[in-house]
Design a protein that fits this description.
The complex is a heterodimer of chains A (about 230) and B (about 375). With about 230 residues, chain A is mainly α. Helix content of chain A is about 80%, strand content about 0%. The relative contact order of chain A is 0.14. Chain A starts with a helix and ends with a helix. In chain A, α8 packs parallel to α12 and α9 crosses α10. Chain A has one domain. Chain B has about 375 residues and is of the alpha/beta class. Chain B has three domains: about 220 residues, 3-Layer(aba) Sandwich (Rossmann fold); about 80 residues, Ribosomal protein S6/Translation elongation factor EF1B (Alpha-Beta Plaits, 2-Layer Sandwich); about 70 residues. Chain B has 16 helices and 14 strands. Chain B has a six-stranded mixed sheet, sandwiched between helices. The longest helix of chain B has 19 residues. The two termini of chain B are about 45 Å apart. The chains are: A mainly alpha (about 230), B alpha/beta (about 375). At the A-B interface, α1 and α5 of A face α2 and α3 of B.
């Protein structure tokens, strides 16, 4: 797992994906920080975090798009799958590499908090709560993106499909409100990422939501592993 | 070292590999030979655990590849048909990655240096793989397979795309490696297999068509009592043909005589087969002297690996042709170049199947140069 993790981190930087991801993330979050927090003359960071949901939604597919699709296309998966490592090591190595980059990007909020601390009093509990909520949201999204990346050989297809999938998950809330069937509506709301995330930005640290995000991450990594395994049999 | 039992792989309806069994001993270099699409790569991918078999068993060093894949894979170094190279890495960092991936315990620096020297890539260690030539990429692929000194090396067409010098280098390297490793090597290049391998398995249409050393396979398939004779009759027309066949048939110990195609103007070749332990050459000579005929060529059929290969792989085509309606013919024409490789080989097939023969006759007429050469050789 360590070898794959290190290679992926290196590949993020040599391929330039890391620079694109980090700069776009910092730029957009900076805009939200400026208009949502500084501009409104508050040290309350929650508005910034709630807007950042959409950035995460569109940027994570860029991180995950080529993780497995490129391997398949360049036939490098043959090297990985015939090496004495398990499928979980391969998938988790890639998963944690993407997660690491996400955490690096996300940690830019601590720079913002330093700026805020200079201007006024930072509410650290909400900031940290939001920070971790976003981390867990990202960890779930990355697993979804990684899974979609394992389904195709084309990294653009992988990126677009991941964005679409995450966007549909985001739309679940507004879709649910239009559905009259009580059971379906409840089911849709219960798997809603957005409302769970929003809860955190409203200052509610809900442990079940954390469990939800971690479970999603686990399930999609599991599906990726099964998918890789199944490919050998088909 | 490697044991394969009743290995089968099915892709939907297509039977890619059908009930293959063989074993390879330690220190043996085994060559997998077969036309494109015969199932070589599929077999190798199964041996290395990249894909799994539909049924059958593979034991690497006594470990079942499906039951304990990690332990089995630790014994294998694999160079796939397309080397699994990350083109955005330098050679050094790539080999370092493979070193970590294989959890190699050998001293890192010394081991990597040794491998780079062996594969002659020390000069390009700091270059990006993307910028390397095909030959160097192939060597980096080979170097990757050698990391951690696996007892089993599986190389899928290792010399493909290399220039002649590099091919010789890689072959020498493989021979050298064969002293300490068990090597399985696939190729559709016959001289390569002959030059490098101790033992050959010919795969055709997913089944083992022959297994043994080149000599063993040759003896098994060759009928040493067959020969091709070119006799010039007295009139130099087709009329001679019958007379000559009749005369030869009278020699004692003859099993079979048949006039073959016209090789020079008015002069025909004859396929002659004698019973075992009978040498008819002298008698043939005296008959010709009696009738004032001239023997222009006499060739015993000794088979090279190439002959064997063509015979096995094309014999199969012939069978298919026999049963199939004319619609199957285009499939055959696509393989025409095989015939023109060597007309002599074609004759082997021509003996067996009529349709095939016609095609061969045309082919040989198309190519007068080759005829002359063949005549000249004798």
């Amino acid at each position: 797992m360590g070898a794959i993790y290190r290679r992926e981190i290196g590949a993020f930087f040599t391929s330039g994906v890391a620079y694109v991801f980090l700069s776009v993330f910092t730029l957009l979050s900076g805009i939200f920080f400026f208009f949502g927090v500084i501009g409104s003359g508050t040290t309350e960071t929650s508005p910034m975090f709630s807007s950042m949901f959409t950035i995460v939604l569109f940027l994570i597919p860029i991180l995950t798009m080529k993780l497995l699709s490129e391997e398949k296309k360049n036939r490098t998966d043959q090297g990985l799958l015939t090496a004495p490592v398990g499928l979980w090591s391969i998938v988790l190595g890639k998963y944690f590499a993407a997660l690491t980059l996400f955490v690096i990007a996300e940690s830019v909020v601590f720079i913002y908090s330093i700026i805020l601390a200079y201007l006024g009093d930072v509410v650290w509990s909400t900031l940290l709560g939001n920070y971790f909520a976003m981390l867990f949201l990202g960890s779930a999204f990355i697993a979804v993106g990684l899974f979609i990346s394992s389904l195709t050989e084309n990294q653009m297809a992988s990126a677009v499909a991941s964005m679409l999938a995450l966007f549909v998950l985001y739309l679940f809330d507004s879709l649910a409100s239009n559905i009259s069937n009580e059971i379906v509506r409840k089911a849709m709301l219960s798997v809603s990422f957005y409302s769970r995330y929003l809860e955190f930005t409203q200052g509610i640290f809900n442990i079940t939501s954390i469990v939800f995000f971690v479970s999603v991450a686990f399930i999609f990594n599991f599906l990726t592993v099964r998918g890789l395994d199944k490919r050998r049999w088909s | 070292m490697i044991e394969v039992r009743n290995l089968t792989k099915r892709y939907g309806d297509k039977q890619a590999v059908n009930d293959i069994s063989f074993s390879v001993e330690k220190g043996e270099i085994l060559g997998f030979l077969g036309p494109n699409g015969a199932g070589k790569s599929t077999t190798m991918n199964m041996l290395t655990g990249y894909i799994s078999s539909t049924s059958g068993q593979i034991l690497i060093n006594g470990v079942d590849i499906l039951e304990d894949p990690i332990k089995a894979k630790a014994n294998i170094g694999y160079l796939p048909e397309i080397p699994p190279l990350y083109v955005d890495m330098t050679v050094d960092s790539y080999l370092g990655f493979m070193y970590d991936l294989k959890k190699c315990k050998l001293p890192r620096k010394a081991h990597l240096k040794e491998i780079c020297d062996l594969c002659k890539i020390s000069g390009v260690r700091h270059r990006l793989i993307r910028n390397l030539s095909k030959g160097y990429k192939q060597r980096v692929g080979l170097a990757q397979a050698l990391i951690n000194n696996p007892p089993v090396l599986i190389l899928d067409e290792p010399t493909v795309g290399l220039d002649p010098n590099q091919i010789i280098e890689i072959r020498t390297l493989i021979k050298k490696l064969g002293k300490n490793h068990t090597v399985i090597l696939s190729s559709h290049i016959l001289p390569e297999i002959q030059a490098v391998c101790d033992r050959i398995i010919i795969i055709n249409k997913g089944v083992v068509a022959a297994d043994g050393t080149a000599d063993e396979i040759a003896t098994h398939l060759t009928n040493e009592h067959k020969m091709t004779v070119r006799i010039e009759g007295s009139t130099r027309t087709a009329a001679d043909k019958k007379e000559i066949v009749e005369a030869i048939r009278k020699i004692s110990g003859i099993k079979y005589v048949r006039a073959d195609m016209e090789r020079e103007k008015g002069i025909y070749d004859y396929d002659v087969e004698a019973k075992e332990d009978v040498d008819i050459r002298r008698e043939l000579n005296s008959i010709c002297r009696q009738h004032d005929w001239n023997i222009l060529m006499l060739q015993l059929s000794d088979m090279t690996l190439e002959d064997i290969f063509l015979r096995i792989t094309m014999g199969d085509d012939a069978n298919r042709l026999k049963g199939a309606e004319p619609a199957a013919a285009p499939a055959n024409t696509s393989e025409k170049p095989k015939f023109s490789l060597n007309v002599k080989d074609g004759e082997l097939v021509a003996e067996e199947v009529e349709e095939e023969e016609k095609l061969l006759v045309d082919q040989s007429f198309d190519d007068p140069d080759e005829e002359k050469n063949e005549g000249g050789e004798e």
